[in-house]
Amino acid sequence: MSTKVDFFIIGSGIAGLIYALKVAPFGSVCVLSKINMDETATRYAQGGIAAVMYSPDNYKKHIEDTIIAGAGLNNEEIVRIAINESTERINELAEWGTQFDKESTGKYSLAKEGGHSEFRILHHKDNTGNEIQRALSEKVRNHPNITVLENYLAIDLITQHHLGKLVKRKDKDITCFGAYALDKNTGKINTILAKTTMLATGGIGNIYQTTTNPTLSTGDGIAMAYRAKAHINYLEFVQFHPTSLYNPGEKPSFLITEAMRGAGAVLVTKKGVPFMHKYDKRGSLAPRDITARAIDNELKLSGDEFVYLNTLKIDKNEILAHFPTIYAKCLSIGIDITKDMIPVVPAAHYSCGGIVTDKYGQTSIQNLFAAGEVANTGLHGANRLASNSLLESAVFSHRAALKASSTVSNINIETNFPDWNDEGTVLNEEMILITQSKKELQSIMSNYVGIVRSNIRLKRALDRLNIIYKETEDLFDKSIVSEPICELRNMINVAYLVIRLAMRRKESIGLHYNIDYPV
Ligand code: FAD
Ligand code: SIN
Fold this sequence. Notes:
This protein is of the alpha/beta class and about 525 residues long. The protein folds into 3 domains: about 1-235 and about 350-410, FAD/NAD(P)-binding domain (3-Layer(bba) Sandwich), CATH 3.50.50; about 245-345, Succinate dehydrogenase/fumarate reductase flavoprotein, catalytic domain (Flavocytochrome C3, Chain A, domain 1, Alpha-Beta Complex), CATH 3.90.700; about 430-480 and about 480-505, Methane Monooxygenase Hydroxylase, Chain G, domain 1 (Up-down Bundle), CATH 1.20.58.100. It has 14 helices and 17 strands. It has helices at about 15-25, 60-70, 75-85, 85-95, 130-140, 220-225, 260, 290-300, 315-320, 325-330, 390-405, 430-450, 455-480, 485-505, and strands at about 1-10, 30-35, 50, 110, 120, 145-150, 150-155, 180-185, 190-200, 230-235, 240-245, 265-270, 305-310, 340-350, 355, 370, 375. Helix 1 links the parallel strand 1 and strand 2. Helix 1 (about 15-25) runs parallel beside helix 11 (about 390-405), helix 12 (about 430-450) runs parallel beside helix 14 and helix 13 runs antiparallel to helix 14. The longest helix is centred in the C-terminal third of the chain and has 24 residues, at about 455-480. The N and C termini lie far apart (about 55 Å). Bound molecules: flavin-adenine dinucleotide and succinic acid (SIN). Succinic acid (SIN) binds near residues 46, 258, 350 and 389.
């Protein structure tokens, strides 16, 4: 079975949906969503979206904060573009129905998070992502040119490789013609042929044991692009959020927004002693790399399983008004955050690297775009500044839409591709082969490729991963395609890239901290 479309989008989070709305006037649009349209990492975003709105803030300050957090490994042109276009993108999100909180004066209420020198985080209480997703999904559902296929899993991008040609990463003419996708309801594989393809598949958090990311964040887009021979970079920079709720067994880990520290909450040891000033003069509002490493160090020194976030200095009314979701969540497990401190630990949260794109979201493969967390635009450098991710998604999905809509009329849909070949495959009846390998992968990444790394740990990680890689490729070749085997294969591909890029970087910088290269 095959489908033909002008604009094909894999992913229904902020990046995929903004792009969909912007290209829809120029042709037919098909959006794929692995679960349902609203189940995305976007939906879980709490703190908000960073943008320059009013004085005393200005573009220069936000640009500087972004580059300081990124340890100077940012692409300065991209940083300037993202921040100079931030106000425009916020106004558009608001016009499209997102309700950002306002002061009684009518101005937007702005919060502060780690690494920001000004109050510039627009938010909707402590569930900003859910509000953005709601507004975008509503517009997409009502758009006549957009079809959303839910419960569909993209498996692999289609390139000349599928016509039997040898494709090498250094080739300049690799072209994307769409993707093979599994209809999870029927088990059938659809060949989706497209003039342009957008990868907006989000993050990679599930390659680790503990993550704030929803289960869908398995790095599918990066793995598919890598297999199609796109350029990938900066994946060694995995951001661990300092404060996820310590609640053993809960997946994903529940986030305690950094905005709480912006509102006055302080990190303290289990004995109640503040410690962040030992690591950075900005204390509990230091950037995430420093804060997560400080917590990791305190836990190693004390042998404790968590530190506390002391929220008791925040006024009770402010907690109830600004952090209702966190208040309710903590209360549900017996913690009243107006009276008790919150036990927290770092958790894998965000991938700063990904598929290399230019300032219009174009990847190294022709007619293939990428935007959102899956992309490596160069905005974040070695560490992302809090709340710059939603901003990056909004700015570069917009720019990619400009590019794709201006080129689509010059592209013909190629139709001579074979359907997915599942000859000789059988149903894998031993799920344990997949679940056990996934656990091993997550344990390897958490123990050897986490917040603090070393050369020997990275080498060991690669050796162990190679075993799982070979077993999984073998299983994939023999099995009828299913979501669990595809996700496992993708997570292994992405973990491999994280390790290889971490091994290649002979320094400690930003989120990549290797004890063999002390700072
Ligand atoms: P997502 O929103 O993750 O969407 C990915 C989409 O791709 C989904 O629709 C999924 O179904 C689809 N998909 C994936 N693989 C496939 C496949 N193989 N086939 C078909 N579909 C597929 N950032 C901020 O800037 N501010 C914040 O306050 C903030 N808070 C956060 C809080 C939490 C708990 C988390 C997890 C992240 C937070 N972030 C925040 C980061 C930010 O939310 C994400 O980086 C951003 O939402 C990513 O958007 P996206 O559109 O790239 O991907
Ligand atoms: C948070 O609310 O702390 C998360 C913000 C982000 O990931 O940018």
